[in-house]
Amino acid sequence: MNIRYTVLVLAAAAGGTMAQNPLVTHMYTADPTARVFNDTLYIYPSSDQVPPEGRKANDFCMPGYRMFRLDGGATWTDVGPVLDQNEVPWGKKDSFAMWAPDCIEKDGKYYYYFPAAPLDGSAFRRIGVGVSDSPEGPFTWEPHYIEGVKGIDPGLFVDDDNRAYLYFGGGHELFVVPLKDNMKEIAAPPKKVEHLPKGYKEASFMFKRNGIYYMTFAHTFPQEGYTIGYATSDSPMGPFVYGGKIMDNIGNGTNHHSITKYRGLWILFYHWWDISGFNKLRSMRADYLQFHKDGSILKVKPTLRGIGTPGLGELIQVDRYNEINGCETAFLEHDGYRGWMVTETKPNSYVRFDRVDFTGAKKIQARIACGQTYGKFEIRQNQIWGKLLAEFPVHYTGGWNSWETIEAEIKEPVDGVHNLVVVFKPDWGGTKLVNLDWLKLTE
């Protein structure tokens, strides 16, 4: 795989960033920390890039941070840069060592924490902090790192009593330390988190639900690779009792996560490398998370569909399906990333995409490519035999890679959130009807 070319294609393809997995496709993003501020969902990730000349090709190369905001039901907006590696007052220049960050609110201020390689060489990583009046910055960066803290992956937690805690560490040890009210100094020496499984651990993230403190972390079991696990306690300082895995290993490389509740639903954010195929060029993802009645966490299986509810004017990436039968998905281009499509659409094949908000929709658009002139595809509600919402006759667009956007009227008004099913119908016994990129509801 030509990794450098893939990255150039990603940059050229900057456009819609959708809540289907992966969440962002115009750049590589990892280590997603998700936070809800003022009923708005934000993600504060790290970023990956191909190493520049002179650096090892197989190294992590992480130059700085950006942030993303969920707008509408399924569209992520790139808010812009947060911090570049060469803007860290106490950091090494061109270190490409800006690993997982976090952002937290306390007393109306927003505090952004990050690890960086210190110029004084006092540790592998130190942790710095900046403060802002807005979750979108700009942040004013402290001139020095937090004294008494050495490590990576800062994870912040503010309890109901307004006390703040910093979780950090990497390797075989994780730590927790209370912070002073200024959020810039530790209030006591760091405490090692005990009673966790043996093995490499990082990516500490704390949340609280129904009085239970959940300390979650990335963990490698022997011969298994990265998993996401959790431990619980009745105190943010522990002691903790290991509860099991939240997500199994999904590939040969890291995972790093956060968990938040947004509009009544719990969500697990994590990363993978399904665009690049290279585990140093990652893409952030999200799936819903559920609990047993006793508070234990059900294991999450990664999906293509992800989270979010696309509505009027938002792209419905049907190739990020909930169910597919008789057809396939593939990259739009063979020489670089332009997204995916539904293809090899055999007669009576179908693809189902859950959770679409039809409120206000009168028409449906579809982006298609077709190398023949027979057949149609139908849009049905909830099931393959559900109410017929719209139908699109297939026509020749100039070839299987020649794309057009077509439109059809919605036959009957539909309100609210429903599943959507695309059913491919033949006029004859052909083996492929159409390539389908996306759908969109319009007025």
CATH level 1 class label of the largest domain: Mainly Beta
Helix content range: under 10%
Provide the CATH topology of the largest domain: Tachylectin-2, Chain A
The profile of the biggest β sheet is:
5 strands, antiparallel
Structural category is: mainly beta
Q: CATH homologous superfamily name of the largest domain?
A: Glycosyl hydrolase domain, family 43
The number of helical segments is 1
- Strand fraction band? over 45%
Question: What does the average pLDDT come to?
Answer: 93
Q: What is the domain total for the residues?
A: 2
- Contiguous low-pLDDT stretches (5 residues minimum) are 1-9, 11-16
First-residue to last-residue Cα separation: 42 Å
Topology, number of strands:
30
Q: Any idea what the radius of gyration is?
A: 23 Å
Which overall shape is indicated by the principal axes computed on the Cα atoms? elongated
Q: Based on the structure given, which CATH architecture of the largest domain is correct?
A: 5 Propeller
Instruction: Order the strands across the largest sheet as they lie in space.
Output: 21-24-29-26-27
Which terms would index this structure?
single chain; 443 residues; mainly beta; Tachylectin-2, Chain A; Jelly Rolls; 2 domains; 5-stranded antiparallel β-sheet; 4-stranded antiparallel β-sheet; 30 strands; disordered N terminus
